[in-house]
Design a protein that fits this description.
Distance between the termini: 22 Å
Structural class: alpha/beta
Number of strands: 11
Bound molecules: pyridoxal-5'-phosphate
Largest sheet: 7 strands, mixed
Strand content: 5-15%
Oligomer: single chain
Radius of gyration: 21 Å
Length: 381
């Protein structure tokens, strides 16, 4: 493997933010933080107060109440608890799901279909891949327990009108008398603020490794009153999750989110420059622009559909040349199957293997695009 590596797969996991790395060192060296936050003794209470402070920070940053914040082991667990919990608390056993959702959503939806006979229906898409909100009549929406969608598709970078969807659903009545909105802004949060004012969803899920926290930590924010069944006996996190919390996970997630909030405006400006440079490179290489709608605000994710080869061939070649990129959604980028999202966007089976994704993060610079350009030079795309 050539060194240094050019890393263009931040949507899968981005490096720790420097302040987070410092906090980890400090945390691990502090004997006062080794206790279980549920223990009633002095050190347990110290751990509990650190957990509570992290919860308050996350709540403030996301426009929620601390009692609405549930720490999890990542985005997948958060989405599972939300989707399965809402479906099992509902009466219709029907879910309306964005066809461009992450595989974490599909795994929960498939589990519900297999074990609980919960049906799922796709949110219709416009020809440019956006949710066709005009097709969602009040009666149609009311026939579902939950509406599930992503703010930004982590594969194709298609941004969805999530706030409009949430408002449409909220207008149907108070929570408990209408479907629950479950939104996955795991990818979007890197380039767009996520808080209750901008995203009035009943439930949101975040994964810390997407914005510079530790892998294996995440958060679920559930607005109070939302019907959500715990998955089994749950003694922690407001009765919604069993087992001891990760103090380090919660603490680093809170700090990473706060660092992201502070630095996002400058980082987004950089992503915009990098996106333009990548667009010039794409034109130079003769890769056609994708036909779907581009995000209104700049995104850190760029997706190409290769005209002549597969994403897997190119990511393997790039890897040998020291460039990390992805073929599809973060968690299945190593998988050889065609992309579910590209199929949903109407691409024929023969083209669903042709996706190639580059994603930026807080450490990305124009030098990454220069390195990519030379790595791609003699490859047939
Ligand atoms: C949009 C999106 N949602 C959910 C997840 C799952 O998060 P985690 O990897 O923390 O389980 C990912 C991970 O790539 C993602 O990109």
């Amino acid at each position: 493997m050539p060194s240094p590596v050019t890393y263009l797969d931040h949507a899968a996991a981005t490096p720790l933010r420097p302040a987070v790395a410092d906090l980890i060192t400090e945390h691990l060296a502090d004997p006062a933080l080794t206790a279980n936050p549920s223990s009633p003794h002095t050190l347990g209470r110290t751990a509990r107060s650190v957990l509570d402070t992290s919860r308050r920070t996350v709540a403030d940053l996301l426009g929620a109440h601390p009692a609405e914040v549930i720490f999890t082991s990542g985005g997948t667990e958060a989405l599972w608890r939300a989707i399965v919990g809402v479906a099992l608390a509902g009466q219709h056993r029907r879910l309306l799901v964005s066809p461009l959702c992450h595989s974490a959503v599909w795994s929960a939806v498939s589990y519900l279909a297999l074990h609980h006979r919960v049906e799922s229906h796709p949110i219709p898409l416009t020809p440019t891949g956006q949710w066709a909100l005009s097709a969602l009549t009040p009666d149609f929406l009311q026939s579902f327990d939950a509406i599930i969608g992503e703010s930004l598709c982590s594969e194709t970078s298609i941004a969805q009108p999530v706030a409009d969807l949430c408002q449409l659903v909220t207008a149907l009545g108070p929570v408990g008398q209408r479907p629950v909105t479950i939104i996955d802004p795991c990818a979007a949060v890197v380039s767009q603020p996520v808080d209750h004012a901008t995203l009035p969803a009943d439930i949101i899920a975040l994964s810390a490794e997407k914005f510079g926290g530790l892998g294996g930590s995440g958060v679920l924010v559930v607005q109070s009153g939302t019907p959500l069944k715990p998955l089994g006996p749950s003694t922690h996190e407001w009765g919604l999750r069993p087992g001891t919390q990760s103090l380090l996970g919660a603490r680093t997630l809170a700090l990473a989110l706060s660092e992201l909030t502070t630095h996002r405006p400058q980082e987004v400006t950089r992503y915009q420059q990098l996106t333009h440079a990548l667009r010039d490179l794409r034109d130079q290489l003769g890769v056609p622009a994708s036909p779907w709608a581009t995000p209104q605000s700049p995104s850190h994710i760029t997706h190409w559909v290769l005209p002549r080869t597969t994403g897997q061939i190119i990511t393997t070649q790039l890897d040998l040349r020291g460039v990390c990129a992805a073929t599809g959604p973060a968690c299945s980028s190593g998988a050889a199957q065609g992309s579910r999202a590209l199929a949903a966007l109407g691409l024929p089976d023969t083209a669903t293997h042709r996706g190639l994704r580059f994603s930026f993060g807080h450490t990305s610079t124009l030098a990454d695009i220069t390195a990519l350009q030379s790595a791609l030079q003699d490859l047939t795309l």
